[in-house]
């Protein structure tokens, strides 16, 4: 299998051979927009499953596309960085949307997006009450998001990793400010919602994947890593932060957004919160154990006079030092 991070003459020839076939070129044009399954691609291209699978394997083996297994489903998408990404830009950008075949594929893709949007809307409707109840306990979400941008953007990040991405809202929020982003979540339902939201908004440089904050492993490093309302669900936040730190670029920033300590037991009983908020000394200890240091913090307190409300806390961290940076311990 070709490594998409390297670039030699032989590899470029492999990419050209892989892309230089009508069906595979159509597949690349589609996979460059949203994650798609074999079933999706069969419906769009109206070709047999063995044929589609064979072409996909060639694209994956060539390093132009990636395959992601999520439960019983496998999703495919073009690679999002490295020399292979630059090659794809050169190949796909000249293709005109006025081409009859590409235009027809786009129309069928719209139907898939619409179906996903309906599924996402149904999921939202079923869970709206519990989400609304929690949101009603703290200041408006737009104020939280403004604070997140204020803390996250000064370092001028080019890449974003959103851990526990949920609906993909944080990817949407930072999409205008970064060149690529990835959201990780353990919930297949939430990933479906996030995929639908991003696709419907035309956000093509943000992707989502099934994953575990405790098992991030090696991979691309990111300039900004966000854990938004995630730590209070975790049994071992320090371990999650340690794994997150391994994916943080040298001058990168890690932003934790969560609740300050509170006494709302119903959040533990009804919404699976393992912790009733956190305090800065506790966060600093977890950061220290992960090789991070606290750089800034912000407390968004409830409006004056509110009796049953939560304080939203934001903590910004960076590498404690550069020693051993390149070693993934």
Keywords:
alpha/beta, 9 strands, 2 domains, 44% helix, 329 residues, Arc Repressor Mutant, subunit A, Rossmann fold, single chain, seven-stranded mixed beta sheet, two-stranded antiparallel sheet, globular, 12 helices
Provide an overview of this structure.
With 329 residues, the chain is α/β, with parallel strands linked by helices. It has two domains: 9-95, Winged helix-like DNA-binding domain superfamily/Winged helix DNA-binding domain (Arc Repressor Mutant, subunit A); 128-319, 3-Layer(aba) Sandwich (Rossmann fold), CATH 3.40.50. It has twelve helices and nine strands. The chain has a seven-stranded mixed sheet with strand order 5-4-3-6-7-9-8, sandwiched between helices. Helix 10 links the parallel strand 6 and strand 7 (248-259). Helix 2 (22-31) crosses helix 4 (49-62), helix 3 (38-45) packs antiparallel against helix 6 and helix 10 crosses helix 12. The longest helix has 36 residues, at 100-135. The two termini are 27 Å apart.
């Amino acid at each position: 299998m070709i490594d998409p991070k390297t670039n030699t003459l032989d590899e470029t020839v492999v990419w050209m051979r892989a892309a230089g076939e009508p069906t595979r070129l159509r597949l690349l044009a589609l996979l460059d927009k949203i994650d798609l399954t074999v079933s999706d691609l069969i419906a769009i291209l109206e070709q047999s499953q063995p044929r589609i699978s064979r072409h996909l394997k060639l694209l994956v083996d060539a390093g132009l596309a990636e395959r992601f297994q999520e439960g019983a489903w496998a999703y495919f998408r073009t690679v999002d960085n490295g020399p292979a990404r630059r090659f794809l830009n050169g190949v796909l950008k000249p293709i005109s949307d006025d081409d009859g075949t590409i235009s027809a594929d786009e129309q069928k893709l719209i139907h898939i997006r619409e179906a996903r949007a309906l599924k996402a809307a149904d999921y939202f409707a079923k869970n709206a009450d519990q989400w609304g109840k929690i949101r009603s306990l703290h200041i408006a979400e737009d104020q939280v998001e403004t604070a997140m941008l204020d803390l996250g953007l000064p370092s001028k990040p080019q890449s974003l990793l959103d851990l526990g991405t949920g609906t993909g809202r944080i990817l949407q929020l930072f999409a205008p400010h970064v060149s690529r982003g990835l959201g990780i979540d353990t919930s297949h339902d939430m990933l479906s919602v996030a995929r639908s939201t991003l696709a419907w908004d035309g956000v093509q440089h943000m992707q989502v994947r099934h994953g575990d904050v405790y098992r991030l492993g090696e991979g691309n490093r990111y300039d900004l890593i966000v854990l938004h309302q995630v730590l209070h669900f975790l049994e071992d936040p320090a371990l999650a932060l340690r794994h997150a730190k391994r994916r943080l670029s040298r001058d990168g920033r890690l932003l934790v957004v969560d609740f300050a300590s509170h006494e709302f037991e119903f959040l533990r009983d009804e919404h699976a919160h393992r912790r009733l908020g956190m305090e800065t000394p506790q966060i600093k200890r977890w950061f220290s154990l992960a090789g991070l240091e606290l750089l800034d913090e912000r407390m968004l307190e409830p409006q004056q006079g509110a009796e049953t409300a939560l304080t939203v806390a934001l903590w910004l961290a960076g590498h404690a030092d550069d020693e051993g940076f390149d070693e993934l311990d």
